[in-house]
Amino acid sequence: MHSVLRRDLRAALAAGDRTTVAALRSAIAAIDNAQAPSLDGTASSGPAGPGGVGVGSTEVDRLELDDDELRSVLRAERDESLSAAAQFDALGRPDDAAAMRSRADVVERYLA
Predict the structure, then answer these.
(1) How far apart are CA 52 and CA 40, in angstroms?
(2) What is the CATH code of the structural domain delimited by 2-108?
(3) pLDDT digits (tens, 9 = 90+) for 35-83
């Protein structure tokens, strides 16, 4: 799914679709954050090993998310956009609210 999002981001960039670009960038960033390893410092996959120094000593494998976990991240992104839309509505900013709902609609396509 991650590769599909990146492919669709490239297509949206080429098409100049700002709403889709914004939604996909946000979704990809959320997935990247979810795949980040913990900061407990217990794992290092670099050639120098744990606590080592040298080239690659700070490299750490990213976490692998299964499809359910990816969908959970995307649902959270969709829900966050809808929440922001409601807040913009409450502030009397219907254009911003509509933009956030459009972002949520883009993310929703990947949940089907």
Answers:
(1) 16
(2) 1.10.1510
(3) 998 776 554 444 444 555 556 556 678 889 999 999 999 999 999 999 9
